[in-house]
Design brief:
The strands form two sheets. This protein has a seven-stranded mixed beta sheet. The chain has a six-stranded mixed beta sheet with strand order 8-9-10-11-12-13, with no helix packed on it. With about 270 residues, it is α/β, with parallel strands linked by helices. It has seven helices and 13 strands. The chain starts with 5 loop residues before the first helix and ends in a 5-residue tail after the last helix. Bound molecules: zinc ion (ZN). The site of zinc ion has 4 residues, from loops.
Length: about 270
């Protein structure tokens, strides 16, 4: 087999970079969160479909919101939708991971909101969110405006392990399974409705992004192995179209395909 010359390797590397840049750009459609996109997923679960998909679990006594949207303006839109849906006084907010579009709208939630976040995610947020916001501000004027005056909250509950939140007639299980898309990824499972809100761990029609050192194919696949036995009927991924339980297998197949191709390309050419 012919050994490629240095120039050809550099050309191939540039082409791969270009493909990744295009994929990243194609995934960057970032419309404002809109109340018009509210969708009832199951008896107790709703989603504001957009960037990102926001999960809302409504019980008789309390409401849980999963992720906030980018900046205060989007967070306020989420809150308007929540006010229309809520049946009880208690309001809980949690975030699936530290990235800007999932966390930076939290200041728009009222003072009585109970913010729940895993310890590992909070540490990661403290360390990495400022850089992440800086990258988002560079993407567009809209993002720059949205992220103008972000004031983060101090979590009311720092989760070490998992918790079951009783919302009245329905409960939500909040848990972490290890690093996948980020170090502090958290998932929410609404058992009564068999709905999984997996953050970015299970995505739909989206190229998987592994932004930091802890995110690996191996880790992500191991997390999917732990998610599979839940056998959710429906999945509300944070990005992409809502789907059924088969999204887990599709995500695994995509990661395995990518892993296989990457290993193949890494193999030294010989003979
Ligand atoms: Zn993310």
């Amino acid at each position: 087999m012919r050994i490629p010359r240095n120039g050809e390797v550099a050309g191939l590397a540039a082409a791969v970079c270009l493909i990744f840049a295009c994929v990243a750009r194609a995934q960057l459609a970032q419309p404002l969160v809109s109340e018009q996109t509210l969708k009832q997923v199951s008896e107790h679960v709703y989603a504001l479909v957009g960037f990102p998909n926001i999960g809302i679990v409504v019980g008789n006594r309390g409401t849980l919101v999963i992720d906030t949207g980018l900046g205060t303006r989007n967070g306020a839109t989420v809150m308007r939708a929540v006010e229309k849906l809520a049946k009880g006084q208690n309001l809980y907010l949690t975030t699936t991971h530290y990235h800007s579009e999932h966390t930076t709208g939290e200041q728009a939630f009222p003072p009585h909101t109970v913010l729940i976040r895993p310890v590992v995610q909070q540490e990661e947020l403290n360390q990495r969110l400022p850089q992440h916001m800086a990258r988002f501000r560079e993407m567009s004027q809209q993002n720059k405006d949205l992220l103008q005056d972000v004031k983060l909250r101090t979590p009311d509950i720092l989760l070490d392990g998992e918790m079951k939140l009783d919302l009245g007639g329905v409960s939500a299980r909040l848990f972490c399974l290890g690093a996948a898309h980020t170090k502090g990824d958290m998932l929410v499972f609404v058992e009564e409705d068999s709905v999984l809100i997996p953050g970015d761990i299970v995505q739909s029609k989206l190229f998987p992004i592994m932004p930091d050192g802890e995110a690996t194919m191996k880790g992500w696949l191991a997390v999917l192995d732990k998610v599979e036995p839940l056998k959710p009927r429906l999945i509300v991924p944070d990005h992409g179209e809502l789907g059924d339980g088969s999204l887990i297998a599709k995500q695994r197949a995509m990661l395995q395909e990518l892993q296989g191709r990457a290993l193949e390309l890494k193999k030294p050419e010989c003979c």
